[in-house]
Specification:
heterodimer; A: 20 strands; B: about 325 residues; 22 strands; about 45% strand
Chain lengths: ~425, ~325
Amino acid sequence: MKRLAVALAAAALAAPQVARANPADAYGFGARAQSMAGAQVASADGASAAYYNPALLAASPDIRIDVGYQLAVPRLTVDGHDTGVDASRGLALGLAVPGQLLGARLAVGAGLFLPDQHITRTRTLASAQPRFALYDNRPQRLFLAANLAVRLPRGVYLGAGIAYMSSTQGTVALDGVVGFPDPNVSQLQLAIDVDLKTIRYPQAGAAWEALPWLTLGASYRGGFRLDIDQTFDITGDVGTPGATPVVPDGSLHLRSRAQDLFQPAQATVGAAARLTPRWMVAFDLGWHRWSVFENPAAKIDLGLDLGPFQDLVDIPPQEPLPAPHYHDIAVPRVGVEHTRGDTRWRAGYRYEPSPAPPQRGATNFIDNDKHTLALGAGIDKLGLGGIILKPISFDVALDVTWLPARDHHKILAADPIGDYRSTGVIVAGSVMSRWRF
Amino acid sequence: MHRLLALALATTTAACGFGLADDSSGGRDDLPQSGAGPFKKLEVDDTTAADEPWIATDPVLELTEAALTARPGGGHVVYVTREPAAEPAGDTTIWRAELPDRRELPTPFVEVLTADRTWEEGHVGAPAIVREGDVLVMFYAAGIDSVGRADSIDGGLTWTKWPAPVLTGVTSPAIGYDGATWLLAFIDETGAIGLARSDDGHEFTRAAAPILTARTDDPGAFDHVAVAAPSLAWLVEGTGRGHWALWYAGLEESPGEGERPLYAIGYAASWDGASWSRLPGNRPIAAAPATEPTVALDDNHGVMAYTAPNGRRQSIGLAVTP
């Protein structure tokens, strides 16, 4: 058993320093969790543990299947204007399958958030363009994670897993004759080489039933960023095919390297206390490593060879991208669950301070502090007609995140963007059914 | 509980299935901007009645030095300096038209200010207009190097001139007013952009040094050779803090013999009117050929009128922010 635990821990630690950039981070995963403001590291129940704390997948002896739908609609404004940040919505699925190995309960689990607008969206904006940096692309991606958990003696649970994403590297090459002055006579051969490389990033967790009424938990997710590397090459003569070229062996080389979907490494500790048979209170405190967030704008390498006309072209080098100077943050969450018969009422609060400094310089990676108030309810229904014998849970959640107004006063009077005030509200809801077998 | 569940299911289904929460722009709408543009000249659009980018053009007359003000009910009021064909060369007047919709032609231009004072020497032009309460206040170039003032209480249809110039020895006036302080920018005797300040709009005190000169030490700057034609405004931003904005024409290279100078338009700003900084970099905010800018900002969108050649004559065009 110790070997198994060591192997799980080693697997988690040996994996690269990454984790996830996904809608679950922004809005939560599962209706029960969302209605408790995400205070789940010691209280996750069912397949949502695949996201909050993989160790708790082994807490239940049942096979668990969660099926739900989540929706988050932001209205984030700058100077009173809605900036049109996209809604995030999609199918949330979770699976936990327990088993026995060497006398210990094992569980494998998976979590999936499948957006129904984009599987994943990446978009690189100009460095100075104002955008709500934490909501631009982060909620617009697929989340897929697989986990393994084990229950050890003395009420200890360990779990670890990996999540998947892909990075993009591509080259578009055109070779031949670029028609000049008539581009229609161009004779070019096209070659496209695009590589979607798999990125795996780890998550791990532990939980301890310290007392019959108290569970302690901890989880870790590494950092993640998506590298987008695109190259565009044109090589060949410029002129009319068959005639002496105007530019022999000309070339244009354009390479764009950008980052997207950044997600900070996160470490969370928490406790869940069942104060009475009816009342459970959970508290989480997370650390989010935003200080390594880099400017996501594209770095452009541009090479142009126009032969005898080279002197006519002056392409200035790209200015260095200014650093965003984000800082690490601590995120407290508290959630309560009240059980009355076969119904449950839930509430939660989360405070997420902004990792972004006021945008006083050349960058406009806007973010505000966030206060989230969550409410929800659930009901357990007995199995359906003798086919499903165990209770089925139906949960609903609704949360509102308020971003209090924040002023960004520029240092330079001649700043291209100028001062602005950012604020906003995000309304998120979810429904989920949880099945036990 | 069942009703709650049903409501949640119905709401969510409706949201995802019927586009209630579909993508909007993805975060690119209505972004703030300080007046620094960039401004892009209107492109020809055959589907409109307008003559993009021109709002004032004539095959015979020179139309220059425009001023834009907001028009009640939407759109803009345009003032231009016009060199009448019937008058001696160099004599100019100021004309006015309304432009309710830039996709339409402006209303016919009407003469609103003529050089009828001795000290105006047959020339009035380069209007710069601000609003003080219900009164529109125009500062205009008069004669060779004087600046006059005229007021209008009927939205710019008629103007009452002040008897004497408010400033002399300068040309190309531009005016800004923040509710307490008046700043009057101009081209001084050396060709630099200078500034005068007033607490009442009547008596102006010139600053000792110019606020903007050509960047002679930067050969790549769009204003390497000369600066000209300032336009000034007090802009209040979303936080409530304001700044002085200055648009001006810059010349990168001296024109060859017989050639027209190829001006482009740049931007500078100041918190206090005393210390000014240019937009970082050495690029213009509106490409050449364009000079004599005037800008009207409507929330997060800006409209610039500029002077540029259209055929053999100078005309007034429009450029806009995205």
